[in-house]
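Appendix B, record 7
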Amino acid sequence: MFTLDRLRALDALAVHGSMAGAARALHITPSGVSQQLAKLERESGHRLLEPDGRGVRLTHAGRVLAGHAARVVAQVATAEADLSELRAEILGPLRLGGVGSSLRALLPSALATLTETYPRLAPTVVDGEAVDMVPMLVRGELDVVLAESWESRPTPLPAGLGVRTLVVEEVRVALSEAHPLAGRAEVDLAELDGSVWAACPEGTDPYEALVQALRGRGVEPEVRYTVIEYATQLALVARNLAVALVPEMAQRPCPEGVRFVPGSPALRREVLVVWRAHAWSPSVRALVSALSDLVERRRDGWGGGDGRVA
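Structure tokens (predicted):
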């Protein structure tokens, strides 16, 4: 019989990759994690760990059992959350992170509703990119992340996370009104060969999605301007210094002199709300519900295009 504490230790090691990381996540000592895993090896009759430099890694048997452990831990957490919701108040810290455009479009209204309904809730918010914030979520430094996943480059998410798609929206090519293609009803991305691009920094989801979309049309983009904020990218576009790919949520506010033209092939971005599956607390559940309700009320779009809501 495998005990829950030992399965939790194995799941934490699989997620965090080290005894020290698992210990921090479980709020016990590394030797405590080691003892739990040694007992689990004896109970399972299989060697679950093997040396890896100065640390350890999972054997094949360890990876097989870790997959089962993740599902058991998540199911138990869901059961605990369901029971605690029967009596728990929604209060205390709620740590949120997200990409700027979705934070601006979704979070203020959702948080206003939540804090009015639950005045003892204390949310905090940081912005950034999914490539940085998803690891923070996995480590327990954030409770919820608003992430993005582009059709041309889907975002990989590690096991053990709960995910809900909030919005599926169109991504358009932002052109200066002075650009030769600005009057077109549609622009083939191949026609933008030789253009100067503005984009989010290299390594972020928007940058990699731009590169993949253009390479799919035989174009190697020349990205001269790397800035996180779409507002700055649009300011560059307005002065005819660059072109950009801009999702619907990020198309407002917009300076004068910018046209948003559908690309060919069509491009889309998903906005996701992500949380740790074993930390489906009443506060997290309330936020996800508030975001979903907000999106349902805004099915007519975000004021910048023809995005559709999932």
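Remarks on this record: The CA atoms of residues 125 and 299 lie 25 Å apart. The mean pLDDT is 89.
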